[in-house]
Amino acid sequence: MLGTLDTLAASVLQLTVLDVAIEIGWETAAERDASGVAVIDRPLETCLLTWCDLRVLRLRGIPVSSATISAIAALQLLEELNIQTTSLLTPLEGGLGTFAPSLKTLHIHIDFLSWATKFLAHISSSRLESLSVFLADCSPAYTVSDFCTVIAQHQSRLALREIRILQARMASPDTTTKPEHLRPLLQLPQLAVLSIEGRESFGIDIDDSFLGEMASAWPELEILKLDPLDPCLPAVTWAGLVRFAHLCPKLRSIKLGIDTGADVPAFDNLLVRPAAPSSLVSLHVGRAAPPRDPVQLAAFLFEHFPLLDSVSSYPRREDYAQTILGWKKVKDILYELRLVRRQERNWSQGQGPVASPRS
Questions:
Q1: Is residue 251 part of a domain?
Q2: Structure pTM?
Q3: Would 140 be classed as within a structural domain?
Q4: How far apart are CA 62 and CA 230, in angstroms?
Q5: Residue 92 placed within a domain
Q6: pLDDT, tens digit, for every residue of 200-226?
Q7: No. of H helices and E strands in the chain?
Q8: Which residues span the domain enclosing 67?
């Protein structure tokens, strides 16, 4: 691999895309340093200084060092960057300065969210549209607040459309992300995707009130996925969900903690009257309790979200079977209701019956 990069650097001087993915166990013993870290990044530093025309750089499965980060900083035309590193391997030096003035897409695989926050502060681009962070370790809630604050103050605040955070490890029970931690993101007017997920990691605690703030701030929103607390209280109500979805007409997918213990509101009691049918096709209710009345709930969801195709939840230890069966029944009834609606449409147009694939 090292020889291949050297040969490439010598023969291709105007490279614009470099995509390297290394699987675990590819290196020989000679290609690891004393600490056991792959040393692929060492010759890469020289190569990067040669490839000044790079637009896309993806280094997947390669923990890069601080020296490589400095070499990446010299790539003025870079538009997409995908790197993996560790907080110990890649300290951000005070003299690094700002870089990546043309960056549009940034994906970081790192230990802690605090490092990603520091790295983002060095990015000078005002064109950053997509930001994705994969965390190998758990991060406390205050680091989420710091991360959101830096994003809200960044030069690309008006351009950012997508923010994704995925945490691999389970966090402690007292790790709770509250509305005040996320509130800085309300300053991103073009946000279309916000996804903060993990294995019971962040414990995001929001209610109808903050959901309303998000609807006002993000009219372009298409995907909202916020892993809730377990148990999720206070949680979003069905009425709050309906208002939110209709105030965000492009919303297609949502994951939130829903208070399924609250009554399903009657249509006449809802204050929002949508101008067009909701675009919502996927709903995840978090660790919500089983539906009390699956038939009534399915009818309610079909009335407000006629395109809804997927309803799911996290299984709960205390009522595992009831949760699985209850939400499956809601999904099955929704399917039958859509089938009936299609049948009505076909009959009105003089067409034949619609056969159910499930029969």
A1: no
A2: 0.86
A3: no
A4: 35
A5: no
A6: 556 788 889 999 999 999 999 999 999
A7: 10, 11
A8: 1-76
